[in-house]
Amino acid sequence: MALRILKQSNCAVLQALKRNYCSAFELQHKNPVQKAIPKIPKAQYGGRHTVTMLPGGGIGSELMNYVREIFRYAGVPVDFEVLDIDPNSESNDDWDNAITSIKRNGVAIKGNIETKSEQIGIISRNVALRNELGLYVNVLHCKSYPGVRCHHKDVDLVVVRQNTEGEYAMLEHESVSGVVESLKIITVEASERLARFAFNYARTNGRKKVTTIHKANIMKLSDGCFLETSRRIAKEFPDIKHDDMIIDNTCMQLVARPAQFDVLLTTNLYGSITSNVICGLIGGAGLYSGRNYGDHYAVFEPGTRNTGTSIAGKNICNPFAMLNASVDMLNHLGHTQHAQAIEAAIYDTIVVDKIHTADLGGTASTTDCIQNVLKHLAEKHVSWHGVR
């Protein structure tokens, strides 16, 4: 009798969920499924681009100031529309303004946006931004820097992460008192689009293998759908080897033998886990950048999405992840000359001059790193276009 009552209770709750949460899910996933990478927004005002800048919390503001300083020094033809989002606010007005700005400009660079409120109605701004803009894929290229203290050398792999589904669907409820259910959303449509992106990326960038990361031995329907879809799409790319690995073993293998991997194709949560493991093995959160792509917009950010609140304002944070994000953004916008010059200055600072912050085992301050990058830019004698 008690079991029957519990089942009836759960059934009623699920019916209520359909009424109350379906619209929220549709709002989060309302962008049409397309296959194209966002086109470069048309430059305005004499070849200059306007980019939305969202500093975020923690060290975000100071890092964005350094990005703007380097861009001014190098004459980069990019203007920033800077918008701050108050992490303590229970209003979504700041977030709505940010979304409007990105939709207007087409491209954004951002720090990690904190959402400190734990109220049910206040959504994670980072997750909601990716869902609202349809940023279905996150790409993290992890290539070790020579001379940086790390656990493995010569690592060069890419994580292609699903960005809008899985455990990050933000759909959860208390079915009965003391029992909370969280919905993991996996669809064939989104899985197919992501898999095709990963294999196209591998082919375009000279990669040889794609490994699908999953837990289909336990989550047979959700992860099983993701795995079977990737296997089906793999048949369209006979020149790219495909295999798969359970997430538990993947973490161990990344620590033991990361060189066996080339491109990792992951669901949302597994991408977060593997990205942090890989970055931790080859230098930490301060070096690597992440790219978020949708059908219409692109957003660039540090790869591990850390806020760095504890080191904010101390002049000790590592600026290179955010600088590398700005390089990715410039490449996307077609400003390759500026991107190559800044990327080379970053590389020379880290590898040749060994200017390392404390997280890399060095003693340099943030400003030491930035000044050294500026020094290398001054030495390159590049003919800058678009300087006003």
From TrEMBL:
<dbReference type="GO" id="GO:0005739">
    <property type="term" value="C:mitochondrion"/>
</dbReference>
<protein>
    <recommendedName>
        <fullName>Isopropylmalate dehydrogenase-like domain-containing protein</fullName>
    </recommendedName>
</protein>
<dbReference type="GO" id="GO:0006102">
    <property type="term" value="P:isocitrate metabolic process"/>
</dbReference>
<feature type="domain" description="Isopropylmalate dehydrogenase-like">
    <location>
        <begin position="50"/>
        <end position="373"/>
    </location>
</feature>
<dbReference type="Pfam" id="PF00180">
    <property type="entry name" value="Iso_dh"/>
</dbReference>
<keyword id="KW-0816">Tricarboxylic acid cycle</keyword>
<dbReference type="InterPro" id="IPR024084">
    <property type="entry name" value="IsoPropMal-DH-like_dom"/>
</dbReference>
<keyword id="KW-0809">Transit peptide</keyword>
<comment type="similarity">
    <text>Belongs to the isocitrate and isopropylmalate dehydrogenases family.</text>
</comment>
<dbReference type="GO" id="GO:0006099">
    <property type="term" value="P:tricarboxylic acid cycle"/>
</dbReference>
<dbReference type="InterPro" id="IPR004434">
    <property type="entry name" value="Isocitrate_DH_NAD"/>
</dbReference>
<keyword id="KW-0496">Mitochondrion</keyword>
